[in-house]
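User: I'll paste a sequence; please echo it back and then give the predicted structure.

Assistant: Echoing your sequence first, then the prediction.
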Amino acid sequence: MLSGSLKSDFSAPLAGLAMIRLFFRFLGILLLAAAFAALIVDGTKSIAASAVIYTPTADTAAQIFPEKFKLIQPTLERIHPALWNPGMTSLLRLPVWIIIAVLGMICLLLGRKPRPKIGYVRR
């Protein structure tokens, strides 16, 4: 039988992992809410213009961090030219709500509880 102090030593890393999972779930929900808000904004613009209008990720990134956004292209082209032209430019043309929603889903997947192992008794 394990003593109380030894039990708490084993459960401390598990509590830390639970907090990290909680953080990822919270961040994922916030990102999905932001994606929904961006979708509503784009939808409102589309209804007002009677045409499909969406905000590209490049426009939003240039508004949020204008100085750093200018440095993305030279940095990626220095690593490999294909990273910028077909790679990053196609991502930057996507609607911003898609990018935010994908990041939110990734955070939610990182924050999910691990599946129970079949065949092991957990007490």
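The chain has a mean pLDDT of 86. Helices lie at 4-49, 57-64, 66-79, 81-93, 96-110.
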